[in-house]
């Protein structure tokens, strides 16, 4: 799924922008696209804390109502401050800021903002930003698997984890498992190193499918459990946190 969250504390803008985004996803033929709307930064941050990887992209109003009214916005009720809080907690989701001025541009660099779009947004500008993000991170990101004299293309985002079995690498997806020749190191190099992390001498996991992990095991979103090597926990934990920044 290509999940987008829109956060704007003015309800009419949240509705209009979400409708615009839904239309853009339809125009781009992104059939797996979905849009959620949040009216406060607190609500968005709470949702992200439960599942830091549930959204592919965030579209945030950079100035929220409390700051607009001079009421002393909480940390989560300011677009840039919210993004800083997210990054500090290891939430690395890409962000498009909606802004009516350029005062926050330099601060935005600190949180690696993907784009700035002037508010009210022009459809073509927002569409260009979403298209750029989708094509860079999701579209046409395939690897070729050769097995039983056949070749199959599979999107890397659909791979849940890789496992060494009987001196071959098994590529596990949500639907099936495919055994291919070669080593785990070799196959890992074909995949984005910020998404696929080695957690065991026999396992490499797609971080997008991790629900949570503890000292010796990883719980995947589909309920499967894979091990973390005894000597690899600290390395895996550090790499996972960096992959979210």
List the helices and strands and how they pair.
Elements: E1 2-7, H1 11-27, E2 33-38, H2 41-50, E3 57-61, H3 65-68, H4 79-88, E4 94-99, H5 105-110, E5 115-118, H6 123-137, E6 142-147, E7 150-155, E8 159-165, E9 168-173, E10 177-180, H7 184-188, E11 196-200, E12 203-206, E13 210-213, E14 217-220, E15 225-227, H8 233-243
Parallel strand pairs: 1-2, 1-3, 3-4, 4-5
Antiparallel strand pairs: 6-7, 8-9, 8-12, 9-10, 11-12, 13-14, 14-15
Structure explained in plain terms:
The protein has 245 residues and is an alpha/beta fold. It has 2 domains: 2-137, Rossmann fold (3-Layer(aba) Sandwich), CATH 3.40.50.2300; 142-243, OB fold (Dihydrolipoamide Acetyltransferase, E2P) (Beta Barrel). Helix content is 32%, strand content 31%. The protein has 8 helices and 15 strands. The strands form 4 sheets. Strands 2-1-3-4-5 form a 5-stranded parallel β-sheet. A 5-stranded antiparallel β-sheet has the order 10-9-8-12-11. Helix 1 (11-27) packs across helix 6. The longest helix has 17 residues, at 11-27.
């Amino acid at each position: 799924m290509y999940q987008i969250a829109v956060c704007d504390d003015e309800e009419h803008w949240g509705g209009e922008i979400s409708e615009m985004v839904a239309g853009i996803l339809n125009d781009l033929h992104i059939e797996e696209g979905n849009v959620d709307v949040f009216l406060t930064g607190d609500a968005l941050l709470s949702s992200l804390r439960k599942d830091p990887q549930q959204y592919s992209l965030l579209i945030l109003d950079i100035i929220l109502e409390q700051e607009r009214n001079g009421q002393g916005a909480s940390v989560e009720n300011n677009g840039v401050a919210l993004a800083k809080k997210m990054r500090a907690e290891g939430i690395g989701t890409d962000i498009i800021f909606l802004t009516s001025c350029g005062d926050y541009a330099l601060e935005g660099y600190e949180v690696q903002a993907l784009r700035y779009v002037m508010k009210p947004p022009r459809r073509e500008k927002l569409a260009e930003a979403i298209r750029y993000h989708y094509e860079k991170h999701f579209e046409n990101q395939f690897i070729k698997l050769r097995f039983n004299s056949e070749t199959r293309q599979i999107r890397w985002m659909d791979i849940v984890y890789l496992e060494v079995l009987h001196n071959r690498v098994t590529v596990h997806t949500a639907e099936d498992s495919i055994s291919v020749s070669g080593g785990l190191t070799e196959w890992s190099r074909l995949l984005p190193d910020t998404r696929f992390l080695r957690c065991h001498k026999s396992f490499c996991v797609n971080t997008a499918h991790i629900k949570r992990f503890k000292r010796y095991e990883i719980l995947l979103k589909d309920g499967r459990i894979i091990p973390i090597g005894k000597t690899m926990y600290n390395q895996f934990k550090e790499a996972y946190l960096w992959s979210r920044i």
